[in-house]
From TrEMBL:
Organism: Micavibrio aeruginosavorus EPB
Name the record gives this protein: Chaperone protein HtpG
Residue span of region A: 1-339
Binding site for ATP: 33, 37, 79, 84, 92, 98-100, 124-129, 181, 339
Keywords per UniProt: ATP-binding, Chaperone, Cytoplasm, Nucleotide-binding, Stress response
A Pfam family: HATPase_c_3
Length: 637
């Protein structure tokens, strides 16, 4: 087949340039990435050969070779794994087909993005192969997919594009097993240390000692392999915990995650009993860029008796644990069936449940032993984990133990539900909460003024998922959840915590009955009712939902995402102690609904309540005119 020359897209070219320069201070990483990819290729062929043993005919021992050619200043990384077809080389090496590439570029270019953040972003995008251009001005790839006879040659300078063609007979011979991939890096002058055996050995032992495929420092086409591999060459997760160092755990995490952050939690155990499996799982420090992408798959690798099966096995992990990284190796699953049949095996469901229990238990222990680390975890993954409250009934108790929320008890401090219940007032029979998008807005919501004045704690919930799980779960520890923006709430049995110097002289209250009647009449087309509020202490008015209606924030979320339109009318609550309400009460007694001032005031109060609630004003022009008239009268007076 003729040569094909293809250009990189503009985003890919810029990304390659950043990869080559942003990682400069830690460019040993390129070899880790290439060895990691080679090990994955061997794992994939090991699995495919279970169904088709002919794929490994003549060479059943998997290995990786790293060797240099000082005469030509080239470094070679070769494996006898699955290999790539021509189209796979174009897809895997010629494009970075990620929907978020442009968004990531903007993040990387941002002046607020630190070097460490750039490393994490690059790792999240799985562009490890392109790290080759940190040390090479040209990269060649020769590959033949197992079970085929076609060998192809790919070449690029990492800037303008790439060329792909049929490999020559001499190039094809370099694949000594007749399959797999050979990567040839033409090393830059400033990277000459990677042409020294001791340097290569050091890097492999530091970064790739955990790789289960043996790595050799020799050319398989010229030398009989009789020396020991450079790496330990055994599955890390199968070793005893006491024999594994923290550094080895962290390097294995970087191998499977392609990131450069450190895990906030490492969990390694063996389950024995009716089903047996070994798990080595990690909780990352940073969430990936596509955490909330609906199409995102879980990233825990499934092995069966040390044979790699899949890194995207549906059903192996709950969707609300999709941030977990690591390996699960089963002793009970069959090897001779398809992945599709495998994911329907009941053992998978049992493993999923057992893994969830263990990880949740470890997270609960982390919250007790290292609150700072747990706070870091919750800030990154709390909203995802709370998805389990919605649909994982069997794990709700464990999830409630680790769920954290902001509240009015201590600003900027997270609290658990059990701690909230322990602080409940005598006579308080509900867990009060308010939902919204912004924490600061919730702290200043008029609906919580009465609760704060009486020392009643209110949970401040800012995650969209909160609105949904609260519809499914009605209580915790026998205490029902109750929204402070819904229904009628009587706080009269709780005394206000007013300081002595804050007490105001008592004044004669005007009868608010005429005002309520006037407001109901003037606003009958826009609100369902007008009533006196026990929620308010400082604000004159607020809006709440009727007892049987959808909570206000929940309704706003449904309108945005599901075009929901219940057509329900809100209730306008007024603070009878507020000076403005008192003056309007006097106006209502004297002039009634015929007063232009009262007419304008009624609609301004409603619009004010809407603004505080974060809702749009239906008629901004009328709002502006009423406000102008009110200001004009006030200045004239």
């Amino acid at each position: 087949m003729a040569n094909e020359t293809m250009n990189f897209g503009a985003d890919v070219s810029r990304l390659l340039d950043i990869v080559a320069h942003a990682l400069y201070s830690n460019r040993d990483v390129f070899l880790r990435e290439l060895v990691s990819n080679a090990a994955d290729a061997c794992d994939r062929l090991r699995y495919e050969s279970i169904r088709d043993p002919s794929l490994t005919s003549g060479d059943t021992t998997f290995k990786i070779n790293v060797f240099k050619d000082t005469g030509y200043r080239c470094l070679h990384v070769q494996d006898n794994g699955i290999g790539m077809s021509r189209q796979e080389m174009i897809d895997n090496l010629g494009t970075i087909a990620k929907s978020g590439t442009r968004a990531m570029m903007e993040q990387i270019k941002s002046s607020q993005t630190s070097d460490q953040d750039r490393l994490s972003l690059i790792g999240q995008f799985g562009v490890g192969f392109y790290a080759s251009f940190m040390v090479a001005h040209k990269v060649e790839v020769i590959s033949r997919r197992a079970g085929t006879s076609e060998t192809n040659h790919w070449e690029s300078d990492g800037r303008t594009g790439f060329t792909i063609r049929d490999a020559t007979p001499d190039e094809a011979k370099k694949l000594s097993s007749g399959r797999g991939t050979l990567i040839i890096l033409h090393v830059n002058d400033d990277a000459s240390d990677f042409l020294i055996d001791e340097k290569l050995k050091q890097v492999i032992q530091i970064w790739s000692d955990h790789i289960s495929v043996p790595v050799y420092l020799s050319d398989p086409a010229k030398t009989e392999i009789d020396e020991k591999p450079v790496n330990a060459g055994s599955a890390l997760w199968m070793r005893p915990k006491q024999d594994i160092t923290t550094e080895q755990y962290e390097e294995f995490y970087r191998h499977i995650s392609h990131g450069l952050d450190e895990p906030v939690l490492t969990s390694h155990w063996r389950a024995e009993g009716k089903i047996e499996y070994t798990a080595l799982l990690y909780i990352p420090t940073l969430r990936p860029w596509d955490m909330y992408d609906p199409g995102r798959k879980t990233s825990v690798r499934l092995y069966v008796k040390r044979v790699f099966i899949s890194d995207t096995m549906d059903g192996l992990m709950y969707p609300w644990m999709r941030f977990v990284r690591g390996v699960i190796d089963s002793e009970d699953l069959p090897l001779n069936i398809s992945r599709e049949m495998l994911q329907m095996n009941p053992v998978i469901a049992k493993i999923r449940s057992g893994v969830a229990k263990r990880v949740l238990s470890d997270l609960n222990k982390l919250s007790e032993d290292d609150p700072a680390a747990f706070k870091t975890f919750w800030g990154q993954f709390g909203p995802v984990l709370k998805e389990g409250l919605y649909d994982a009934v069997e794990h709700r108790e464990a999830l409630f133990k680790i769920a954290r929320f902001f509240s009015t008890h201590q600003e900027d401090t997270l609290t658990s539900l059990s701690d909230y219940v322990s602080r409940m007032k005598d006579g308080q029979d509900a867990i009060y909460y308010i939902t919204g998008e912004n924490l600061e807005t919730l702290k200043n919501s008029p609906q919580i003024e009465g609760f704060k004045a009486r020392g009643i704690e209110v949970l401040l919930m800012t995650d969209t998922i909160d609105d949904f799980w609260l519809q499914q779960i009605h209580d915790f520890d026998g205490k029902p959840f109750k929204s402070v923006t819904k229904g009628s709430i009587d706080l009269s049995k709780f005394e206000k915590q007013t300081k002595a110097d804050d007490k105001k002289p008592e004044t004669e209250h005007q009868d608010t009955t005429p005002l309520l009647a006037s407001l109901k009449d003037l606003l009958k087309d826009e609100v369902g009712d007008v009533r006196i509020s026990s929620r308010l202490t400082d604000s004159p008015v607020c809006l709440v939902a009727a007892e049987g209606d959808v909570d206000m924030h929940m309704e706003r979320v449904l309108k945005i995402h599901q075009k929901y339109d219940a057509g329900s009318k809100r209730i306008l609550e007024v603070n009878e102690d507020h000076p403005l309400i008192q003056r309007l009460s006097t106006l209502a007694q004297n002039a009634g609904t015929n007063s232009p001032d009262l007419h304008d005031a009624a609609h301004l109060l409603l619009d004010q309540a809407r603004i505080i609630q974060g809702e749009p004003i239906p008629d901004p022009a009328n709002f502006a005119r009423r406000m102008a008239r009110f200001m004009e009268r006030g200045l004239a007076a």
